[in-house]
Amino acid sequence: MEKRLTQIINMVRNFLFSSANREFLTFFFFLVLSTIFWLMTALNETYEREVSVPAYLVNVPKNVVITSDMEDTVRVTVRDKGFALLAYIYGEGVRPININFQSFVTRQSGYGVVPSQELMKMVNQRFSGASKVVQVKPDRLDFYYNYGLSRQVPVKMAGVVVPGKSFYLARTRFWPETVTVYGSKQTLDSLRYVKTVPINITNFNDTVVKTVALEKIKGVKIVPNTVRIGLYPDILTEETIEVPVTAVNMPEGKVLRSFPQRVTVNFIVGASMFRSISSDQFAVVVDYNELIEHPSDKCNIHLRQCPQGVRNARLQMTQVDYLIEEQ
Question: What per-residue string of b and e applies to 6-26 under the rule 16 or more CB within 10 Å gives b?
Fold first, then answer.
């Protein structure tokens, strides 16, 4: 075993210290040395780079609710030597900016702002004296708050929802159906609902349930900020129903009798909804005033009322025979 190990060591030594390999090692040494010199020269030049600085709102009282998301990162363009920029970007980074809540709020205003000059001062304190801060984005930080004032509002869908052919959207459901919103009294008084972010769901014929975010409102905190939405399509079917003809605007002491007394209404409705449709949800009428203005052997009938959810309702006939009698 020792003899074998000695042979391997001798082979490696002979390979490394052969004439050709000595030339390669010499070349490689000077290549590494020149690379180090080039890197040191390059890092000694002055550059501008964008550095991210975390920003935190601190010392917020327990009875205060922050109703808007303040920017949590300040993007700072810094001019300095390459060595310093390398430490900012790939080293331990830059210490966060701590923004004291009490220092930047106007009492009872519900609004706080860190002006550009104050923000620039905080940023400069996070860099060495040799570093030059060229630009700060955003140039100021602001936030909204209140002392727990809130209300419940319903959720509404925004976007495009189109079921597949021969289907329609029968029902939409949210979990939860209402959310809690925090904001100023003026904002809460004017807020009637919150919307989802626009969604686009098309060509579906089965129930769809998914989680969607709620659209942000400036100065308002929404809890929760996401909801689950359920979309329930139903197949459309063409149906008919017999509806009685009713006279309107009849003078006292007169009665109008139509022949036939019931007419057929064609309509399109969801298959699950058809069971709840009845004839008294429709209204087919004859207007006596129209008969007086345009006397005829037949009277026009009009479909004046249909139940919600019924589509393309139409009469199979538009005129009927009639007789006016004295009571």
Answer: eeeeeeeeeeeeeeeeeeeee
